[in-house]
Amino acid sequence: MTGRKVRPSGLEALCLLSFAGSGAGFLLYVAVLLFRDEALRIIDIYSSWDQPGLLTSRYFLLLAGGNLLSLAGVFLMWHQRSAGFFLYAGIQMALLLLPPLWLGKEAFSSVALIFTLLFTTGYARYFLHTGLNLKLRNPS
Predict the structure, then answer these.
(1) Total structural domains in the chain?
(2) Measured distance CA(108)–CA(123) in Å, rounded
(3) How many Å apart are CA 86 and CA 69, to the nearest integer?
């Protein structure tokens, strides 16, 4: 057997789900950036929101960048680096707060809050409570 650490199955499941969620979010926001006019037309047709002018390219770029940074945090956690937890948790909180701060309180998502809390708590269980590789520098 090699000297590699065994990744706990719960951590592996969380990481795989996060890879899927953050990866899909990143691709979606990049697609919106590339096809912004069409995306705004679809939003106008299928939503009752009356301020599509607030959905600027900068807003979608921030969301795409946040999802990319979230992926980086998950990648680090996949390799059992606790720095990934702090990156992931901080970015998820920023992604949770960006819509209501940018678009108004109506953009707050209870579902996003629930998933953010579930995943952050799940990761915290592995990185803060089990003491898994808490070295932030000189990873081996």
Answers:
(1) 1
(2) 23
(3) 11
Is there a contact between 116 and 93 (Cβ–Cβ < 8 Å)?
yes
The tens digit of pLDDT for each residue in 97-128 reads 999 999 999 899 999 999 999 999 999 988 87
Radius of gyration of the chain (CA): 17
- For residue 134, the SS3 value is coil
Asked, for residue 140, whether it belongs to a domain, the answer is no
Q: Is residue 2 part of a domain?
A: no
- CA-CA distance, 92 to 121, in Å (whole number)? 12
Q: Supply the range of the domain harboring residue 119.
A: 9-129
pTM above 0.70, yes or no: yes
Residue length, the chain? 140
